[in-house]
Amino acid sequence: MGSKEFNTSVDELRHAVGLLIRRMRAAAPSEQHELSWTQKSVIARLERDGAMTSAELARAEGVKPQSMGTAITHLEELGFIEKKSHPSDGRQLIIKLTTKGAAMRKSGKDASRAWLGQAIERLDKREQAILFNAGEIIKRLAEL
User: Fold this and answer.
1) What is the four-CA torsion angle of 54, 67, 102, 106, rounded to 10 degrees?
2) 48-72 per-position pLDDT tens digit
3) Alpha helices, DSSP H only, in 28-144?
4) Angle of CA points 31, 84, 46, to nearest 5°
5) Domains along the sequence of the chain with CATH
């Protein structure tokens, strides 16, 4: 494959992944459509890793503390997260997902999974196998 063909293929893959993400996002409940990428990522991280400080969230998400502060404030106003006193350092606050936040996250994941599952079921078995193998490769790329 020549360099021009390679670049074209890279562009097509980027476009396809973007379309897939947008379709999965569109399947999510409407309340998630109003959240920024950072806010959605904060909710996902808190669900996955548990409660943490704002500074830990900012580092984990690769954003500035001020940006994380804005995201946290909005999520707290919506009732998706809550702040609690740090058990050993009274100067810090721990950010925790609320029951409402966990339910919203679950409904979003369920809707995306349902849409994607239905779409994949339309593929033949060979295409499904190729797609699932590609998923492993895409995951490896994301971890580079």
Assistant:
1) -140
2) 999 999 999 999 999 999 999 999 9
3) 30-33, 37-49, 54-61, 65-78, 99-121, 125-142
4) 45
5) 1-34+99-144 (no CATH), 35-97 (1.10.10.10)
